[in-house]
Design a protein that fits this description.
single chain, Rossmann fold, alpha/beta, globular, about 160 residues, 5 strands
Length: about 160
């Protein structure tokens, strides 16, 4: 199975960088059998990046009103993404809309998981907030469990 992990976010906008940070940690781990990509989350590019993979794991910051650092794992191949969860996109089309567009175009992989990490701040130039930084290791472990065992670890 070809697994592609896609970390989404802006590297210089506080907690928005978390998807890319998780992706970078996974790439550095040398975990066999996965391809790791970092991207800004632009819709057309994201849909193209999903193409050709049997399984895609997307990691992004969320802004749903949950406690900062909370992690939600969603099987988006089975159910739509709650749009308010990703309302903070800097693009006109956010992650939820990109996934639904991929579904409509029949380009959504049969196995597609989203890890949404609740953000606290998207301030330009800021580092990750402490709560979001603390979630990084949990998400890395959960993704590794997804890839190696086919079942999620507790996030």
């Amino acid at each position: 199975m070809r697994t592609r992990v896609i970390g989404i976010g802006h590297p210089d906008r506080g907690d928005d960088a978390v998807g890319r940070i998780v992706a970078a940690r996974l790439a550095a781990s040398g975990l066999p059998g996965i391809e790791v990509i970092e991207t800004d989350g632009e819709a057309a590019k994201l849909i193209d990046l999903m193409e050709g993979a049997d399984e895609v794991i997307l990691i992004d910051a969320a802004l749903s009103g949950a406690t900062p650092g909370a992690v939600t794992r969603l099987d988006v191949a089975a159910t739509p993404v709650p749009q308010p969860m990703f309302a903070a996109s800097s693009h006109a089309v956010g992650l939820a809309e990109s996934i639904e567009l991929a579904r409509i175009l029949d380009r959504l992989p049969a196995h597609c998981i989203v890890y949404a990490i609740e953000a606290a701040s998207f301030m330009l130039g800021a580092p990750l907030s402490p709560a979001v930084a603390a979630a990084v290791d949990r998400v890395v472990a959960s993704v590794v469990a997804d890839v190696t065992a086919g079942a999620p670890a507790d996030a």
